[in-house]
Write a structure and sequence with these properties.
The chain is an alpha+beta fold. The protein is about 40% helix and about 20% strand. The strands form three sheets. Strands 1, 4, 5, 6, 9, 10, 11, 12 and 13 form a nine-stranded mixed sheet that branches. Strands 3-2-14 form a three-stranded antiparallel sheet, with no helix packed on it. Strand 12 and strand 13 form a beta hairpin. Helix 12 crosses helix 14. The chain is elongated, with a radius of gyration of 31 Å.
C-alpha cells in the first residue's frame, strides 16, 4: 500500500532586538549564566511587563515578508505549565488573537517551485535553559524573556528533504528581512515537527506525532527520515498510532516516546492581565511596511532575468547578500554582466578567501580570538567596483587575453588602480598584429615538427602544443584566437 506523509513545522526564532521582550535586560548570547536577568525575567512577585516595541515591529515585518494578514487586534496570553526553566510557571504567548495570520513561503524544490502555507506567526517569550551536569542540574535564565516568534506551518510538507528546504528558505527570508540572525549554534532557531502518515487517497489525516529536540535543520531531516518509515511500518503491522510527543536522539538516530497527548492543547490559557491588547495604528504599520525587502527567491529570479547569469551564479548572490549587492552595483552599467559574475565568484572570491586565511593565521598567532579576527570584505578592496567591468571589457575587446587579465587582477587586488592603467604601465596589451604573429607562428611550427605532422594527419588537439609555444614566445601577449587561425592556415597550406 502507498502512503501519504503530512508534515507541519513549528519554527521558533529569536528576534534581533537589543533587549528582552518585557524588560531592559540585554538580549545577548554567551554571557555568564544568570547575569542578564532582573526581577521581571525571574518572575518575582509584583513585577509588571512592558512590551518591547521593536519586537512588535519585527513580528509584523515577518508577517509582511510571509504574505500574512496583520490583525488590528492581538492579545497576549498566559500558557500555564510547571517546568524548571519557566520561573513564573507560565509563558507569555499568543493563542486566539495572534499578531499575524495566514501567509505562505515559496521555495525551490526538485526543479520546481513549492508553496507551504503558514497558519500563523505569534509572538512570545523564550524560557530559560536547563543545564545538566554529572551530579546536578542548573537553570540559566539569561535566555528567559528573549523575544521569540513561533512560525507555524500547515501540514503541506510531504518529505524529509522538502522540510529541510522549507526551513532553509524560511531562514533566508528572516535573515534578509533583518528579523533574526537565525544562528542555530546560538539557539536562535529551534524547531518542532508534527508528522503523520495515511493510506494514499484517505481524506482524514493520520495521528499527529510531535518530535522535539532537533537543534539543526539537518537534524529535522534525519528525524523525519527515521520517523516516517517507523510510522508506516507500525500501520502495516496493524498498530493504531496515537497522538504523542517523541524525542529525537541524534546520537542513536531514533525517536523515543516522551509523553502521550490526547488533546491538541493541554495548557490552561487565559489572557495576560498585565498587558493591553496590541492594536497597531495606520502610521505605525506604514513605517513597518517601509522596512520590507526583496525576498531571496525573488532576488535570484530577478538576477537571472535582468543580468542573464546562470542559476548557480544567482544562487551564490542570493546566499551572500553583500556579494550580490556588489555584483549588482557593477552589473547595472556593464556590457557583459555574465562575465562580471564569473570574475566575482571565481576570482575575487578566491582572492578574498586566500587573504582572509592568511589574515586569520596571522592574527590568531598574535593571540587574537578567532571570533575577533578582522576579515576582508568587498567593502575593503583597493580598487573601485567598476574596475571589474573595465577588466571584462579589455578581455572582450581583445586588448588583453584571459591569462593577462588574471595578472592584471592580481595587481589590482594587491595595489589598486585601474585595469587600463596597469596594462599600459606594464606593456601587457595583447598583440593582434598579423605580421608579427605570423613570424611567431613560423618559428613555433619549425620548433615543433612532430605536433605539426600530427595536426596535418588529422589530430586536431596537436595544434594546442604549437599554440602554446607561440604564446610563450609572445610572453602571453599574442591574441590566442588570431594565433589559432594563423596556425591552422599555415599548417593546412604546408
Amino acid at each position: 500500500m502507498d502512503y501519504e506523509v503530512n508534515i507541519g513545522l513549528e519554527t521558533h526564532v529569536q528576534l534581533k532586538t537589543k533587549s528582552k521582550m518585557w524588560c531592559s535586560c540585554p538580549n545577548r548570547f554567551g554571557s555568564e549564566p544568570n547575569t542578564n536577568v532582573c526581577p521581571v525575567c525571574l518572575g518575582l512577585p509584583g513585577v509588571l511587563p512592558v512590551a518591547n516595541e521593536e519586537a512588535l515591529r519585527l513580528t509584523v515585518l515577518t508577517g509582511l515578508l510571509l504574505n500574512s494578514e496583520i490583525p488590528r487586534h492581538a492579545v497576549f496570553d498566559r500558557k500555564n505549565y510547571f517546568y524548571p526553566d519557566v520561573a513564573k510557571n507560565y509563558q507569555v504567548t499568543q493563542l486566539a488573537f495572534p499578531s499575524t495570520l495566514g501567509g505562505h513561503v515559496d521555495f525551490e524544490f526538485e526543479g520546481g517551485l513549492q508553496r507551504v502555507r503558514i497558519t500563523r506567526a505569534h509572538l512570545e517569550e523564550d524560557v530559560g535553559k536547563n543545564n545538566h551536569f554529572d551530579r546536578h542540574s542548573g537553570v540559566d535564565f539569561n535566555r528567559a524573556g528573549v523575544p521569540l516568534l513561533e512560525i507555524v506551518s500547515e501540514p503541506d510538507l510531504t518529505s524529509a528533504d522538502m522540510a529541510y528546504e522549507y526551513l532553509n528558505a524560511l531562514k533566508d527570508i528572516l535573515v534578509y528581512g533583518g528579523v533574526s540572525d537565525a544562528d542555530m549554534e546560538k539557539g536562535m532557531v529551534r524547531c518542532d515537527v508534527n508528522v503523520s502518515v495515511r493510506p494514499k487517497g484517505q481524506q482524514e489525516l493520520g495521528a499527529k506525532i510531535e518530535i522535539k529536540n532537533m537543534n539543526s535543520f539537518s537534524g529535522v531531516r534525519r528525524a523525519l527520515q527515521y520517523e516516517i518509515p517507523r510510522q508506516i511500518e507500525a500501520v502495516e503491522k496493524g498498530e493504531k498510532l496515537r497522538q504523542e510527543t517523541r524525542r529525537w536522539d541524534d546520537v542513536a538516530g531514533m525517536t523515543e516516546v516522551m509523553r502521550s497527548k490526547e488533546h491538541a492543547h493541554d495548557y490552561r490559557y487565559f489572557p495576560e492581565p498585565d498587558l493591553m491588547p496590541f492594536e497597531p495604528a495606520d502610521d505605525w504599520l506604514a513605517e513597518v511596511k517601509s522596512r520590507v525587502v526583496e525576498l531571496p527567491l525573488a532576488r535570484k529570479q530577478r538576477f537571472i532575468t535582468d543580468y542573464g547569469i546562470p542559476a548557480g551564479d544567482a544562487e551564490v548572490f542570493k546566499n551572500d547578500v553583500a556579494l550580490g549587492n556588489y555584483f549588482e552595483g557593477i552589473a547595472k552599467g556593464a556590457k557583459n554582466p555574465k562575465a562580471v559574475a564569473n570574475w566575482i565568484i571565481n576570482t575575487l572570491n578566491a582572492r578574498l578567501a586566500e587573504a582572509n586565511l592568511a589574515a586569520a593565521a596571522e592574527q590568531t598567532s598574535m593571540g587574537i580570538e578567532p571570533e575577533d579576527v578582522e576579515l576582508l570584505t568587498v567593502n575593503d578592496l583597493k580598487f573601485a567596483p567598476v574596475a571589474i567591468a573595465e577588466l571584462v571589457e579589455l578581455v572582450d575587446s581583445g586588448r588583453i587575453s584571459n591569462k593577462i587579465a588574471q595578472d592584471v587582477f592580481a595587481e589590482m587586488f594587491a595595489k589598486g588602480g585601474s585595469p587600463a592603467a596597469i596594462v599600459e604601465a606594464k606593456g601587457l596589451a595583447q598583440v593582434s598584429d598579423t605580421g608579427a604573429i605570423e613570424k611567431l607562428c613560423d618559428e613555433a611550427i619549425a620548433a615543433n615538427p612532430g605536433p605539426a605532422a600530427d595536426f596535418r594527419a588529422g589530430k586536431a588537439a596537436a595544434l594546442n602544443r604549437i599554440k602554446g609555444h607561440v604564446m610563450k614566445l609572445s610572453q602571453g601577449k599574442a591574441n590566442p584566437a588570431l594565433v589559432g587561425e594563423i596556425l591552422e592556415q599555415k599548417l593546412k597550406a604546408g
